[in-house]
Amino acid sequence: MNDLVKFESFIRVPEIFFDMIGITRYGEPRDTWKARLKQAFFWSSYANTIFCLIIEHIYFIKAAGNFTNFLELTALAPCMGFTALSIVKIMTIKLNEAKLNGILDRLSDLFPRSHQDQDRYRTYNYNLESQMVMKSFSILYMILIWIFNLLPLVSMLVNYLSTGVLEKELPYFMWYWYDWHKVGYYEITFFHQNWGAFDSAVFNLSTDLLFCAIILLICLQFDILAYRLRHAKGDYKELEECAKLHQSVIELSNQLEGIFSPSILVNFVGSSVIICLVGFQATSDISAFDLFKFILFLISSLVQVFLLCYYGNKLIEASSQITYCAFEGTWYMADVRYQKSLLFVMTRAGKWQKLTAMKFSVVSLASYSAILSTSFSYFTLLKTIYEPK
Q1: Is 288 helix (H, G, I), strand (E, B) or coil?
Q2: Phi, psi of 14 (to 5 degrees)
């Protein structure tokens, strides 16, 4: 028999990252000195990330006005998009903390607690998938951001060993009003960029992981509902409980849609451009160091969008099975009252639950294909415009 799965294990990984940026964990008191200290740390991190985005924009505008290297501009643009996207995502979490806690409270109440129920509803499999996906994605993102952050040090060391000259480098193109090459200034600037980049990565990562965790928990409830309908055996009281559960899960899906729909739209639009620009960088005449980090950036961007679309598609599949599972039961042996009530449940289940990007696009694997197609169109256009001598 598998160990008893706790509800908290589904959200443990995103909460670890929330701790890193100062967002209060689910169920943690919010009126303690520790909570206030975390709030102060979050807003300082958020302010630093916005500041990084501003000076990135200033650098971009100045470089574009001076007709600086086109490759440099296209290298800066995806970093700006990544930072802007992280700011939008984390504010989605921050502005909807109470609503998200309410969703988690409801899912916690519905969560199967006994060994028998967890074995019956395959809760262990859900938890295993959750842990594998979240840990793998987290490792990928952390490798990405720290390679971006620390690769300049490796590049400086290689250049110094080969030429004997120490040329200071920063991880990102940002505008500064002082000479950051000076001793002391360089160290502070390097730390400032690393802090902002790490926060951007964690803002993106934690939001995506919580989004996926909630969808997975909702899919678990759809599976529970499907199992109960399939084994209702004409019990009218059980059918009533199933109808209530169905309504609750639909409401939770709609609430999740209301919270994340705007950020998903920004994510889809931004990711199309980011994937295009990162792919352009990876196929251009750049150094081996830059090639390595931009290939990793491209892989991370593709995986990030795929995760959102995969779990959006998983929600559609989980909700679409309800009608068929209800039909698989022994309704033909029940009375007319039960059959008519079951028909109402099946009719409502015919409208599948789905998440959208502000109604412009459904979050599904088909959307992922459309994003890749759009990115490739941008990529080929950019390649046509840019003709290196």
Answers
A1: helix
A2: -60, -30
CA neighbor of 285 nearest in space, from 193, 181, 209, 389 = 389
Dihedral sign of CA atoms 149, 154, 159, 161 in order: positive
Listed residue (373, 287, 377, 379) closest to 72, CA to CA = 287
What tens digit of pLDDT does each residue of 32-47 get? 888 888 888 889 999 9
- Is there a contact between 94 and 18 (Cβ–Cβ < 8 Å)? no
Which residues, at least 6 apart from 255, have a Cβ–Cβ distance to it below 8 Å? 99, 102, 103
Structure tokens at 256: 């999740």
Minimal CA–CA distance to 173: which of 250, 105, 78, 72? 72
pTM, to two decimals: 0.89
Contacts of 232 (CB under 8 A, 6+ apart): 238, 239, 242, 329, 330, 331
Per-residue pLDDT tens for 189-211?
A: 999 999 998 999 999 999 999 99
